[in-house]
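PROTEIN ENTRY
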Amino acid sequence: MPDIKHGYPLVDAQGRPLKLQPKVTYTLRVKNGYILGLRQDQHQTKLPNLLADFPHTDPRHR
């Protein structure tokens, strides 16, 4: 079965790809083309347009 990517990428407060860890509470926020996952000790920083990093989520390319 081919590896088909669906949905929005999940990134951390610095815009890096995030892997959720068990027993950690996250606040999830849907942004323009990605999901921002913040732990309790984090806050949102100014992120660049991440659509350039994840072109498969850009609706113009569908």
Remarks:
- Strands lie at 10-11, 26-30, 35-39.
